[in-house]
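Q:
Just now I want nothing more than another pair of eyes on a protein record. Here is the record:
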Amino acid sequence: MTESTETWLTQDAFDRLQAELDERSGSIRAEIVAKIEAAREEGDLKENGGYHAAKDDQGKNEARIRQLKQLLEAANIGSPADAGEGKATHGTVVEVRFPDGDVEKFFMGSREETAHSDIDVYSPTSPLGAAVLGSEIGQTVTYDLPNGKQMSVEVLSVALPE
């Protein structure tokens, strides 16, 4: 794996995702199976909305289980060794300044961190994340916008999360 495609998770995020996997593999899966069985007992499955809804829920749950297993098996826990060296990398909080003077601070990490972070989380594979990945304080980097134009940002600070 190259650095830009690795998934880094904080220990907290890893633990949350493991708990979600355990719940989806256990109690949620059992609830869905019970709903399917109950709906099956009602008779004709062709016109049984409860059966089809439960089967749909089952498919979504199993897909999320597969996604979680794959993510957790391949994830790196913590931060890369060079994260504390003033270099923007996975697991660091990066502050950048845009050309109009706006300043933005974000955590460089997996989208799985987003729901439980008090600051924005940018994936290292996003346009801005990929541009600042590996950059140092004071460096100006350029990235492509969805409209085809380019944007430059100056890296103001890089720090480990508090």
